[in-house]
């Protein structure tokens, strides 16, 4: 049996009791055996400053994030909506791993977006704003089903467990669709991006 696909999960909220984090944790449990969802923490990632890259002294956290994304088979973005867009912490992570110029770690990685909100529309604006960036980053993004998880406070219990059966079923189906999308974009197992770079002397 082939090893599960390594899916890096980026969460766009730093709040400890974040609804978005709770949904991401639930998705870890709901994922099919062929997917291994691993949360990539971005809390301590410094703001991106191109001068440091230009001077050959990038922040260690940027390098770590870039390498983690290069090694991943796919990326799942889980985001709340702040002011009709994505939180700055998530945008900073996207920017940091897209640089330096010509070494975009995101390129070619199959991706999916889940937006989470206590409101009824489920972070629709953030979801689509994020997708604009992912198109530019050359990330093939799962189109259907779209995932807008609304009324988050009502579908999670006091301990943060997902208790709404219809949402559980939807997320299971979403992850199965993502699994198929990853297989479609990357139909065969291949070396990690860093291993490939090493082979060609990159």
Average pLDDT, all residues: 91
Largest sheet: 5 strands, parallel
Shape: globular
Question: How many structural domains can be distinguished in the coordinates?
Answer: 1
| Number of helical stretches of at least 4 residues | 8
C-alpha Rg (nearest Å): 17 Å
CATH topology tier name: Rossmann fold
Strand order of the largest sheet: 2-1-3-4-5
C-alpha termini separation:
32 Å
Model description:
There is one protein chain. The chain is an alpha/beta fold. The protein has one domain: Flavodoxin domain (Rossmann fold, 3-Layer(aba) Sandwich), CATH 3.40.50.360. 42% of the residues lie in helices and 13% in strands. It has helices spanning 19-30, 50-54, 60-71, 88-97, 124-136, 152-155, 165-185, 193-199, and strands spanning 5-11, 35-39, 74-79, 111-116, 147-149. The protein has a five-stranded parallel β-sheet, sandwiched between helices.
Summarize the structure.
By secondary structure, this protein is an alpha/beta fold. It has helices spanning about 20-30, 50-55, 60-70, 90-95, 125-135, 150-155, 165-185, 195-200, and strands at about 5-10, 35-40, 75-80, 110-115, 145-150.
Name the descriptors:
202 residues; alpha/beta; Rossmann fold; five-stranded parallel sheet; 8 helices; 13% strand; globular; disordered C terminus
Please give the structural blueprint.
Elements: E1 5-11, H1 19-30, E2 35-39, H2 50-54, H3 60-71, E3 74-79, H4 88-97, E4 111-116, H5 124-136, E5 147-149, H6 152-155, H7 165-185, H8 193-199
Parallel strand pairs: 1-2, 1-3, 3-4, 4-5
């Amino acid at each position: 049996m082939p090893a599960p696909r390594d899916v890096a999960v980026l969460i766009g909220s730093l709040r400890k009791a974040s609804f978005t984090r709770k949904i991401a944790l639930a998705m870890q449990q709901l994922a099919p055996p062929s997917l291994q969802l691993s949360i990539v923490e971005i809390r301590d990632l410094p703001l991106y400053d191109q001068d440091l890259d230009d001077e050959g002294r990038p922040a260690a956290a940027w390098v770590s994030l870039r390498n983690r994304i290069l090694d991943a088979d796919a990326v799942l973005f889980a985001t709340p909506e702040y002011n009709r867009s994505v939180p700055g912490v998530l945008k900073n992570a996207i920017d940091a791993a897209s640089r330096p110029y010509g070494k975009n770690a995101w390129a070619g990685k199959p991706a999916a977006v889940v937006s989470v909100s206590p409101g009824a529309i489920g972070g629709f604006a953030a979801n689509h704003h994020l997708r604009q960036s992912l198109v530019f980053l050359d990330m093939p993004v799962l189109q259907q089903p779209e995932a807008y998880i609304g009324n988050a406070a009502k579908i999670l219990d006091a301990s943060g467990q997902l208790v709404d059966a219809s949402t559980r079923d939807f997320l299971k189906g979403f992850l199965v669709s993502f699994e198929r999308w990853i297989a479609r974009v990357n139909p065969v197992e291949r070396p990690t991006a860093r291993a490939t770079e090493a082979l060609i002397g990159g």
